[in-house]
Amino acid sequence: MTLLHEDRLFPPDATTRAIAKRLYASVKCLPIVSPHGHTQAAWFAHNQPFPDPARLFVQPDHYVYRMLYSQGVSMDDLEIGVPELKNPRKVWRLFAEHYYLFRGTPTRLWLDYAFQELFGLTERLSAKNADHHYDVVAEKLRTPEFLPRALYERFHLEVLATTDSPLDSLNDHRIIRDSGWHGRILPTFRPDPVVDPDFAGFRDNVAKLGALASEETATWSGYLRAIEKTRARFKQLGCTATDHGHPSARTADLSQEEAASLYFAILSGAASADQRELFRAQMLTEMARMSVADGLVMQIHPGSFRNHNQQVYERYGRDTGADIPTPTDYVYALRPLLNRFGNEANLTIILFTLDESSYSRELAPLAGHYPCLRLGPPWWFFDSPEGMLRFREATTETAGFYNTVGFNDDTRAFLSIPARHDVARRMDCAFLARLVAEHRLDEEEAFEVVRDLAYNLVRKAYKL
Amino acid sequence: MTLLHEDRLFPPDATTRAIAKRLYASVKCLPIVSPHGHTQAAWFAHNQPFPDPARLFVQPDHYVYRMLYSQGVSMDDLEIGVPELKNPRKVWRLFAEHYYLFRGTPTRLWLDYAFQELFGLTERLSAKNADHHYDVVAEKLRTPEFLPRALYERFHLEVLATTDSPLDSLNDHRIIRDSGWHGRILPTFRPDPVVDPDFAGFRDNVAKLGALASEETATWSGYLRAIEKTRARFKQLGCTATDHGHPSARTADLSQEEAASLYFAILSGAASADQRELFRAQMLTEMARMSVADGLVMQIHPGSFRNHNQQVYERYGRDTGADIPTPTDYVYALRPLLNRFGNEANLTIILFTLDESSYSRELAPLAGHYPCLRLGPPWWFFDSPEGMLRFREATTETAGFYNTVGFNDDTRAFLSIPARHDVARRMDCAFLARLVAEHRLDEEEAFEVVRDLAYNLVRKAYKL
Amino acid sequence: MTLLHEDRLFPPDATTRAIAKRLYASVKCLPIVSPHGHTQAAWFAHNQPFPDPARLFVQPDHYVYRMLYSQGVSMDDLEIGVPELKNPRKVWRLFAEHYYLFRGTPTRLWLDYAFQELFGLTERLSAKNADHHYDVVAEKLRTPEFLPRALYERFHLEVLATTDSPLDSLNDHRIIRDSGWHGRILPTFRPDPVVDPDFAGFRDNVAKLGALASEETATWSGYLRAIEKTRARFKQLGCTATDHGHPSARTADLSQEEAASLYFAILSGAASADQRELFRAQMLTEMARMSVADGLVMQIHPGSFRNHNQQVYERYGRDTGADIPTPTDYVYALRPLLNRFGNEANLTIILFTLDESSYSRELAPLAGHYPCLRLGPPWWFFDSPEGMLRFREATTETAGFYNTVGFNDDTRAFLSIPARHDVARRMDCAFLARLVAEHRLDEEEAFEVVRDLAYNLVRKAYKL
Q1: What is the pTM of this model?
Q2: Looking at beta carbons, which residues of chain B come within 8 Å of C449?
Q3: B378 — contact with chain C (CB < 8 Å)?
């Protein structure tokens, strides 16, 4: 019995599958480059064992518990938001009992991969074997082979980027550097807390930013300098990219006078919703300006309606599975920024979407023209086999392969990293195998492309 | 010669097809549960023969005559809207002559199924054999085997829901109950005539509602009580669900004072379009409140621009093939209702769409989080092989199988019911077979899932 | 070695491929009907050799250089917008060096076809063989076999429509007619320069229109008469269709008084953006009115945000690869026109889109009802294998095959015409082969349908 078939995700047609297998064999063992995700530098700085199975697989993974919640499992019973689990085994049993809900989902692919490849479990998780699985995982987690740095090696990671607030001291990153460990853990500059007026504690955050950077953020120019200095601080620790999680992709190109006056309105706390949106829009253009200067690659992740479920938000907080995608415009939204910096040779902006209707209509046409634009991989709900196929089918004919940037695992779940990259590599092989089988691409070209998709493009796009 | 191949709709690849066939064999003969449709209780109450072939297959089926009309066939020649057909055979010949237009459409699949499986006709309908087909169908319709109750048995129906106005006496449902016949025909509460101010005769409808329920509908509270009592009347005859056909999915959560004052404006007949839309929005939330109390499952069918063709509407009336889908928002629209009742354990809301771009962007993420939400099957134009595949491909990875509710035939054409359920079962088998062939699901799991999709989920979701 | 496999674009599954091959064999050699495109009548009027390879393949083809530009190749180095290339060989080398960027794109399919079928080149273009390819192409272009009229024969063209301004004298079309050459080159009436107030030089254009037609365009009625007479002038030279490239599909149905007063506001140059959009909307309805009278088929191509890149526009002008699609509404937009003329037997309107989400939601339902509406083939970015599959998958089940109109090559690149039609025929065979293999269509019906799609429907829809 086995959870994972060696040919999983490859097309059933024998000819196409054989091509996919040949392609996959050539990239299966390439190092993993992970330029965007939400793992914690602290894990690698301190190299402590991961806690129990429930805290590893259930509590931090909103993919997992949103599904359980949708089927009536209580978030209290799952101990979501509880810092110290009272009964991790009970949580695990609830999870195991509902594991069938994940049939047909990528979560199931990732979890089965971790269970089998990391923990040697080959029977599908269920109520029946819940305790056995719990015990096996718990025991392994206490071994040195499962310490964060050991897993980094085992996963064949070449570089791993975290996502960090401008208010973060980056001490954990510094500890890693100073430790002499050769693992490459890089910070990513995510300025939302200091550029989004709707972010909790925005004004305090701006004040802290100024204090950390020794700049007077009461003025627009001081505020911009504080950001520039913080970006420089991140760069010193290896940061190559910024990340922007705005509700929309809107950008603006105000005069500096208008921007300064808008900034004062924002700082006063009396700005309207329109003004707050305009400020975020202007800040994306300011970030592009800084990127032209310092070379940091921009990532824009728009279009999520955060905390849609008010009761869940009030009780359990942010990032609890209640973020819902919305229709997202890029054509009008990005134009102010692009008209200012769209033809700059030194600028790279990687665009993501939660609105798949924009792939063929907006994103591929934009990336197939503007030299600064690249398409990020299918994101979040679309980090999945069907999502990846739809992405390639909808974007390749207009933007080609070379305006894309390889894969992002974007995960909080460290143990899912190899599984996620494996799914991405397999799906690219499946897509390319179809092109080869339909004589739209020579097989020898496909070998080159699949290596680019798995390894070369991400390093180039993120300057790694 | 035969119209239907036994392997129809299964993927051509031999491995995948073999899996699909095994899965299909396990669900082919399961009883049909039909929780949503537009058949008439009167048929089963009075059990009279269906009329001639044209009135059975052409006149009531807007799928059929919209296609003929689109290709220049006159609706007068088809005698659309004529209560007693003058020349049913002439109508039938027109239909037969244009039958090639249905190539590649689900209508063709349904009709061929009825022709072959019910009437034993195995040659494709055409101008050449029009009269022969007409005669065969007409003759069979006069036999006892083709009376409504006999067909109910033959179709292996377990339960069949109709869709009914709150002003309906439900006498036909009562006659069925009192007849001792064991067929299970249930009403569905569709309050559009009394909650949509744009519905023809709205104010009269509200007055009638009050009279029927012995409540004073001149007041907001009396109006709500009249609705509650009508729901109770429906429940007594086995009703388990409500259905709401609004232009949008907008909901609102006004205070009772605001709602009462809006209701007066509506009753005055002087309300603006915005107010009328707000009233519909508020009424969805009121319906959710009542559902929490009485347990009726809500169905929301938004997004159709009704009667788009003004000339056709004026001449031939409603439901004549000129309803056109529009872009439909769910994320913002449903939030007021969801913030009020979205976490209620006793509430089920089944969402439908005519805007497929919302499947992966809005509907699957919403249903994959909120415990009250389920996804209805692909609806109307998407009740088709490709539509069903796109639905599963776009929703399963985020919402799984268990946030969906099986199949609705949603038909006015009683004879198409077994064909429609057969297509749905085959397409689910085709989809699952691909998952199995690509090693994304074990075959033994697929057997469980396909039975859930064909039989168990619909009974659970609709409380049948 | 060969660039083109004889089975290219056919599904890999052996059964399905065999069906596709049989279908393709039946349409491969049918004449090409090209009812919409951007070739130049002057080529056929004067029958001069095409210039060098760079001016033939790179400079006029925004599909080609937008991709190069997106990857950092300078438009100056490509000599875009330069009337006489200084260094065509250098441009060609840049192109060859970046040819790998087109992997997976339709451009690559079209170019490889031209290289192999027209120039006998069977090695993939690259930096290595750039000069050789250049020399071979340049040499052939100087031979009589490569003169425009000879290529017209060789391509097996039956009719070829150009796209022409109402201000064009159509002298080249007249020269062709008078030359006795039997090739059928027809003009298409594209009135954008005189009906779109935002078109460069609009007011001068209107004045010229009046002068050419000997009508007083200072009045609304004179303006309309000038257009009617110009349409008649086009008809005399064989024109059967008009074409409308508006930013949106919006239509209006003003009273003639309102329209006249709007026209004055427009002519005054002081009209607002809303008024200009309303004027375009009204003019679509006027064009429909004229089409009911004179029988010209309307084509509507909405939804492109033209000249999105301001810097590129200012430096290199229009049509330089920076047009980006936008979300496009049809349901509300077309209603005024449809309510006026939607049921006219003598009207044909062919709808195109750059917003694929409208295929199943709006376009197929509209075309599956209104007798005047037909669906144009997948356009621009969607003139591609995946684009064609998505089009058929999303529209056939609702609109059938017979509300579509065959293929448009829509090209400025004369040499790509046979390649483009070949891709379209292959993809229709691939789609139909799947229907046959899945027993949704009989093979003998598929032979009829594929011939209709390749040849009959286009002639009927465009009245050719």
Answers
A1: 0.98
A2: 103-104
A3: no
